[in-house]
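I am still learning, so would you mind making up any protein sequence you like and the tokens describing how it folds?
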Amino acid sequence: MARVWKYGDHVNTDLIIPGRYLDDYDIVSLSKHAMEDIDPSFANAVAEGDVIVAGRNFGCGSSREQAPAVLKEKGVGAVFASSIARIFYRNAINVGLPVIISDEAVKILDAGDEVELDLKSGTFTRKGDGVSIDFEPLSPFLLEILDSGGLVKYMKRKLGT
């Protein structure tokens, strides 16, 4: 089961990974600061497979590639939001982090809820009451990129290098 971490609207890339740390190019080291300005407990408490649920315009701001990369490094299994900034969406897929647009998830999920996620079928189920929500599943092409661990790994596999 994945635990839900819930945030509001306009969580920008500077909140995901503060710019003051970007002189460090090591993603493991950077990930220790993930979400620290919006949720100081996140980096130490997030577990493999946990999901972020946020409001509108998640990942807005700069095209900071480190933002989805630190979430992926921390083990975030997916990001659900009412809307996602286009460059963040693209960067997330590139690093192998699933991003899903779902107003319904934002409306019914609360911080601390536990959910089971199935990206292929486009469903998640909340533990406890069994509420199941459908979302538009990711395309087979995007799922293949995500299953490969991101775009670079996908291309290496396709090209046999």
